[in-house]
Amino acid sequence: MNMDEVYRKHAETVFRFLMTLCHEEETARELTQETFYQAIRSSGRYDGTCKVSTWLCQIAKHLWYREIEKRKKKGTLPLDEDVGQPTEGVEREIVIREEKMELFRKVHLLDETSKEVVLLRITGEFSFREIGEIFGKQENWARVTFYRAKQKLVKGREES
To answer: What Gene3D superfamilies does the entry give (predicted)?
Structure first.
């Protein structure tokens, strides 16, 4: 794993994640750096069962929890008890955003007709009947085209 590349690709995500936890830019920057230091130290234990960004955000979250404990001991924790608790689903939102990006990258590789049908369906939320009308075809044609494109996307995902 090339950590320079990992840093370039994921530093902003980790920083934004930490900002949602601590709401302090300086702390988020310091913890982002510490996250990558810890990632380098434990890179041999990364087994690939999750996305790299998810692994990094887990490290970041644990570092933030450690920071909270330090602040509690020093008595410097803000009065707001909600500070440091992840907002509902923040980690899940990051994963969903990354999965969406990956999906759109793969959609972009489809042939033009399949790409347009998929985009009309998932971003325009058009019905199959409407998609068929746009192309001057039947509703069933739109369903079959979408299904085949989806199969290509799933197959591409399994090959990655």
So the answer is: 1.10.1740.10, Winged helix-like DNA-binding domain superfamily/Winged helix DNA-binding domain
